[in-house]
Amino acid sequence: MFSPHIALLCVIPFLAISSTNAAPPPPGTNTVNLRIEGDNSTYYEGPITSGPRNITLPSLDGYPTIPRPCNGLPGNPTPSNTPIDALDAAAKASGFTYNGGFDSDIIDFSISRISTSDQNAFPNKLWGTLVNYQVSKFPEGIYLSGCQQEVKAGDDVLWAFITLPPNTDSTNGILFLKLAPSAVTVKKGKGFTVTVTDGRSGVAVQNASVDGVHTDAGGKATLYLFDTGVFHFKAHQTGNVRSNVMNVTVTN
Predict the structure, then answer these.
(1) Residue 208 and residue 214 in contact, taking contact as beta carbons nearer than 8 Å
(2) Each residue of 152-174: b (16+ CB within 10 Å) or e?
(3) Are 65 and 56 in contact (CB under 8 A)?
(4) CA distances for 184 relative to 31, 181, 189, 232, angstroms
(5) What gap in Å lies between CA 154 and CA 156, rounded to an integer?
(6) How far is residue 139's CA from residue 136's CA, in Å, rounded to a whole number?
(7) What band does 146 get if pLDDT is binned at 50, 70 and 90?
(8) Model-level pTM?
(9) pLDDT band at residue 145, thresholds of 50, 70 and 90?
(10) Does residue 137 surpass a pLDDT of 90?
(11) What is the per-residue pLDDT for 219?
(12) Would you say 199 and 222 are in contact if contact means Cβ atoms under 8 Å apart?
């Protein structure tokens, strides 16, 4: 379970080693804010620099397992950074692994496992992605997936291990919690107010828990900390996706 005071987060920006002879990054490379929410913990939260690359995962339809481009094409007119590019860069930077497969029908990869959270081990869970808390679509209504969803510099990219409601394969009704502010400095013993909303709709979330304090109908909760230091909190609610981290600095 998430610690009420300090979350063990992997916040390791991807560091590019500069060299006068280094090749320039491929077109479409940029830095996004990546968050990966696993079953019981956050695997990564922080900036990551990534761009078009080759991904090697097993074929889902009998074709050879070979490196295949992950570059936003053909869903976009030019090569671009994508959620799977960001995932792959974070995995390399942080040392976790992931798995999935390539589907030639949609010309894309699907992700089934990140670190220890494996959707094949649970009948009602799956990995999904949001960019700026929204799901993009092709004009035809087909959801853009991991290697065809363009992500731009500064975008918030979320990989979430989603628990589906009983007897459905729809994510309708699932909330993706968003905690504000993301950073605050307060005096010891002085109360401060936080707000929890659903990132997709902006609607306030009642009864979400932040450090054991539950939000009211307006999505607000007041916290009091009596120790100095830096603390990290997330909002939680059973059945919904935990929030981004809030960093709290407590001074005398």
Answers:
(1) yes
(2) eeebbbbbbbbbbeeeeeebeeb
(3) yes
(4) 24, 7, 14, 11
(5) 7
(6) 10
(7) confident
(8) 0.88
(9) low
(10) no
(11) 98
(12) no
What are 212's two structure tokens?
């054991």
Say which amino acid occupies 242: R
- Tell me the C-alpha distance between 244 and 117, whole Å: 18
Task: Check whether 141 has a pLDDT greater than 50.
Answer: no
Instruction: Annotate 168-206 with DSSP letters as a single string.
Output: ----TT--BEEEE-SEEEEETT--EEEEEEETTT--B-T
- Whether 243 and 235 have beta carbons less than 8 Å apart is answered as yes
Say which residue the tokens 């628990």 belong to. Answer: 163
Prior bond of 64 cis (ω within 30°): no
| CA-based nearest residue to 160, from 107, 196, 198 | 198
Please confirm whether the linkage preceding 74 is cis (ω < 30° from 0): yes
Residue 13 has pLDDT above 60, yes or no: no
Degrees to nearest 5, angle at CA 174 with 173 and 175: 110
Model pLDDT, residue 75: 81
Mean pLDDT of 40-52: 98
List, in order, residues 6 or more apart from 239 with CB less than 8 Å away: 163, 165, 174
Query: 140: helix, coil or strand?
Result: coil
Of 136 and 13, which is predicted with more confidence?
136
